[in-house]
């Protein structure tokens, strides 16, 4: 079985490489294709009118990990931001890590290579550091149906991987059974699994399982229900960044609650990808490298889910397919 191991750079290692303030934040990482920075810049739901400027600002501020996807509908604008940001920050393409994702409507093996070509064209890149299957479900052309077709899509992604246009391939939003199915029936093990993780959905056992398999994890929605995409429900927990336990840890460590959420994530051994179009928040998030949490802090945050356990991104009903079987709050 082929397996291109992806390592998560430790937060201290990245902080050392980037510096902790001022112009030092613009120093490039000496990164290899197998090392993913623990803090990424997400582009989900960033508006086309300002996402280019946000990506450029992120690269100038010190981010070296960008997370994109076809379905976000803004990859052309992200590409412009990358080109401008690399120039302004005096960086090379090899100094940054770029992830994108295969969307559900291109799972058919005849369409997978076409999907990658379009992504590379939109982003203005020759290769991706990581290409993920966004969901284990696909929409076969001309059927109007949604079905679990991840195996055929994965095998097509394996072929594309061999071309060198993608350094690593992985999955997103898979269940334990689906991940096992991929591993048992493929030549290439996923390098990375991207999933929803935050103090309201810690997924501790699931993360531990990935460590045992040697599969890196990336957490999306690290601020939980602070994401405006998630429509508040009557029984939803309070906004994570105003949670009393988060506020208490933040006050003790002289950090913001957003910085605490990010530091909690990479202290657990995975990368996190917050997003923002506001320069002040972009800067605040990267300064989480200076937010040092103690074991008691981590333990306190771990316990938040005992009172509030909530998965905010579950399109099972819309897809008509059961997702996240065997996982927390499925």
Characterization of this structure:
This protein has 330 residues and is α/β, with parallel strands linked by helices. 38% of the residues lie in helices and 12% in strands. The protein has helices at residues 11-18, 51-61, 75-88, 109-123, 150-161, 176-184, 204-213, 244-253, 257-267, 279-286, 295-302, 304-307, 316-319; strands spanning 7-8, 35-36, 41-42, 65-67, 97-102, 130-133, 137-138, 147-148, 169-172, 192-196, 216-220, 271-272. The strands form three sheets. The protein has an eight-stranded parallel sheet, with helices on one face. Strands 1-2 form a two-stranded parallel ribbon. Strand 10 (192-196), helix 7 and strand 11 (216-220) form a beta-alpha-beta unit. Helix 2 (51-61) packs parallel to helix 10 (279-286). The longest helix has 15 residues, at 109-123. It is globular. The model is unreliable at 16-33 (pLDDT under 50).
